[in-house]
Amino acid sequence: MRQSERLWHLAYKYRMGMSFHGLWVENTDLAQVAAQIGADPASGVMCKWEDLARGLDIGENTRLAWMGSINNSWTQIVGDPTPFDALPALSAGNRRALRVAWTVDGVHDIYYAVGGYYVTAFGVTKPDARKGQDPHALDSYATGLQFDIQDASWESDPDLLPGWHEYSAWKETLYDLPDDDMVDDAYESMPPEWSHLLDLSLNGYSPQLATCITSALILVGRVTGRELDETWMEGHHTRYTIS
């Protein structure tokens, strides 16, 4: 695996390759943070990620947020998107807050707020895409990171996933097949060693996108002092419900 993709693969391991919503706030008072994202502070239950929805009858308007401290200053929140824009509330009182998200529709900007106000929206896939009252507020944290979805340096990277070039070329041929039956036949005859690559692809993977997303999460880690990591994802943290 390319090191530049490692945090996308971490998200994928926990079933968030296709869709991820993360918030970080400079506040370790979980009850206060829960209230600021629209959750009921009394709904908090300690659990592991794999048990996030266990014991709940979740309706279509119910969201879950899983949160816990990552150090002495910051709380990390992973889960469903909040039903409203929470960053101004989370950053009130001279605090800092960030949001990183992606879905099947694409990668959102990194949003950064301080003291109750947005400071910048930092483009994850478009180089130099910045806006806000201080567009370059996060630039010092971005040194050496890759935020260009058009970058092609991955093509010659020796650490690229084995078989990716061959799989990608084969997948392109499917677009030229005249009917669905022929596409189905092609998938059935696909080399079995490509099954993992197919699963990655179905979960939104591409080398350039995984690099941009990993760079976004590294940037957040530089701001907060700790990256999203397996140790935290394997821990017990507090689940809150948002109705």
Mean pLDDT: 92
Tally of separate helices? 8
Order of helices and strands: HEHEEEHEEEEEHHHHHE
What is the 3D shape?
A: globular
Largest sheet: 10 strands, antiparallel
List the quaternary state of the chains: single chain
Approximate strand percentage? 15-25%
Termini gap: 39 Å
Number of β-strand runs:
10
User: Could you say which structural class the secondary elements and strand pairing correspond to?
Assistant: alpha+beta
In the predicted model, the low-confidence regions spanning at least 5 consecutive residues are: none
Question: Which bin fits the share of residues in helices?
Answer: 25-40%
Over all CA atoms, what is the radius of gyration?
Answer: 20 Å
Commentary on this structure:
This protein has two domains: 3-149 and 205-242, no CATH class; 154-200, no CATH class. Helix content is 29%, strand content 21%. The chain has helices at 6-13, 30-36, 87-91, 164-174, 180-188, 195-202, 207-224, 230-233; strands at 20-25, 45-47, 63-69, 75-79, 96-103, 106-107, 110-114, 117-122, 130-131, 237-242. Strands 1, 2, 3, 4, 5, 6, 7, 8, 9 and 10 form a ten-stranded antiparallel beta sheet that branches. Strand 3 and strand 4 form a beta hairpin. The mean pLDDT is 92.
Jot down its keywords:
alpha+beta; ten-stranded antiparallel sheet; 8 helices; 2 domains; 243 residues; 21% strand
